[in-house]
Amino acid sequence: MDATSKPAGKCPVMHGGNTASGKSVTEWWPNALNLDILHQHDTKTNPLGTSFNYREALKTLDVEALKADLRALMTDSQEWWPADWGSYVGMMARVTWHAAGSYRVTDGRGGANTGNQRFAPLNSWPDNVNTDKGRRLLWPIKKKYGNKLSWADLIALAGTIAYDVAGLKTYGFAFGREDIWAPEKDTYWGDEKEWLAPSDGRYGDVSKPETLENPLAAVQMGLIYVNPEGVNGKSDPLATAAQMRETFARMGMDDEETVALTAGGHTIGKSHGNGSAANLSPDPEAAGPEYQGLGWINTKGRGIGRDTVVSGIEGAWTSEPTKWDNGFFDMLFKHEWTLTHSPAGASQWAPITIAEEDKPVDVEDASIRTIPMMTDADMALKVDPIYREISLRFKDDQDHFSDVFARAWFKLTHRDMGPKSRYIGPDVPAEDLIWQDPIPVGSTGYDVAAVKAKIAASGLPVADLVATAWDSARTFRGSDKRGGANGARIRLAPQKDWEGNEPARLSRVLSVLEPIARETGASIADVIVLAGNYGVEQAAKAAGFDIAVPFAAGRGDASAEQTDADSFAPLEPLADGFRNWIKKDYVVSPEELLLDRAQLLGLTAPELTVLIGGLRVIGANYGGAAHGVFTEKPGALTTDFFTTLTDMAYSWVPTGNNLYEIRDRRTGAARYTATRVDLVIGSNSILRAYAEVYAQDDSREKFVRDFIAAWTKVMNADRFDLV
Predict the structure, then answer these.
(1) Active site residue 272
(2) In the prediction, which pLDDT does 7 show?
(3) H or E segment at 337?
(4) For residue 567, what is the DSSP state?
(5) Which of 67, 225, 636, 656 is the most buried (most CB within 10 A)?
(6) Catalytic residue from among 41, 98, 335, 341
(7) Residues 6+ away with beta carbon under 8 Å from 178
(8) How many angstroms separate the Cα of 258 from the Cα of each of 30, 244, 660?
(9) Is residue 181 exposed (0-12), middle (13-18) or buried (19+ Cβ within 10 Å)?
(10) pLDDT tens, residue by residue, 430-460
(11) Residue 321 CB: number of other CB atoms within 10 A?
């Protein structure tokens, strides 16, 4: 045997090292702070390169040709996956529904905005069975239009066209969703270790839906919303109605929208459970290479047409499941229903008696009539008093039902896109909708220098200017593009009263800045940001650097009438490590809450580090607290936070819950106080590496410039007009 040969049968790499079975660093040390959430959507994963601009590419998309191709697809049944009744309208509506339906208002994550349905875990959720087949049916269209059309836009559009083909007058559609290229693996979907585990662990009390753990919206791991068989699979339509009300509210929907979406979603298509789920192959992420990314393939029998297994529930809801009509409500209220089971064993409801002509026909043979069904969620619309009243109103007025559904569907498929300014395409509705958080266009014609001069003469402390601008901007969520400084909603309910915004301090600062806005013609939104920029410039000057902070005018001021106060409640910060504040003790550590905030702001780990260090020495802590202000020159943008943190002349001693003292090793005297968020910058190996860069003697100017760049990124996070 020569020196380069390997013993027979010996693996050339560590066994399991390149698969999910390989032990990661965080698995070895499960209590270590995992920064992976800040590394999501790394540009290195994007095959299109950093120079590709999807919004520019969209300008060359032939939208009418695309819609024509999608309309043709709806009735172009494929032999490998034949369409029910020769129509894919039900399947495509479900693909879109299950992409958009994962959205939650609590943290803005989920939804159809990124094409995340292509990746784990969503591509393999039990509730998403066979959406993989739907995306394969869409592939020829995606292939044809290439990079001019993202998967995210195509998936969202497919269901809209499906309803159009079925006969609904849809409300509109907007392009502009950009694809991600790797799983959003750090999005929290629950801590269960098995699919469809009992939901009790998600609730303080499963009988009280409002106790569902934040930020979750779905009732069980692997579901989009509620269990169609009932709470934990036990039929009880009234209990299911209560879960629906909470879950759909966490999707941003009210009762009328909930009824419309449930009924409208079940007006076309059918459920599939005519067989045994035990005969299905593994889900896509678990399937072998021979399945080529397809999962849930039937290993016995035909597994297509009338013999398909998806949810396990079997049957259609209406007499004509490819047609948009009032058939759902007619079926629901015309018959009495009894609890029964599908061939796959799933609980479902069947009519006690039904005329032959009211039955839907078989998906393959129109000469055969089949029994329709209802799920527990459908029965909830009949037994819950509020849902019943809405349902009867829809039943008697199909035009009203169609209009409410069309609007709710548009909201469902666009809620996570952010403001209307991000919408692209010829079918964007002209109407401004309250859930789009409308903001008037701001002025750019005022004298910025004159505004800065008035701010300088105001006498407001630098820390107050910086803290107010930060609080205004930090609400931004890159997940659904909501929040941010544009609109100056920090001066409106509910934001003006949030504890984290220090209402008394905020009111005092705004009482000075608002007259400046009126006198100069600038928006208060611009003045707040400009005041923060001025404060940063003064802090940099105090550190010996005369550097201007970039500023882009043009923010507008939203009114109370343009603000849905209830929908902004989930944006309230419960902690802000950047200002060293936490509302109360939580199960989640302060440093984990910091990472969540940083990820929503779109920050990288180096940007998080430099902002923490800078905001501390400026003195922008909540309530003026001294924790983490490791400097003898507060107000100056120095590297003192990092030099102190890396100085071995000090020791770090716990003194209470989330509190520490920084003590002189020689004398034992306390020099500073700190929180976990402060000390994690020095204790986490990755963050310490960044801290050491800024603690170096040659990094003083680099620190100031990096801080200004990260600060500007946060201030402009919601300025989509600058992209």
Answers:
(1) no
(2) 47
(3) strand 337-341
(4) H
(5) 225
(6) 98
(7) 54, 114, 150, 152
(8) 40, 8, 49
(9) middle
(10) 999 999 999 999 999 999 999 999 999 999 9
(11) 25
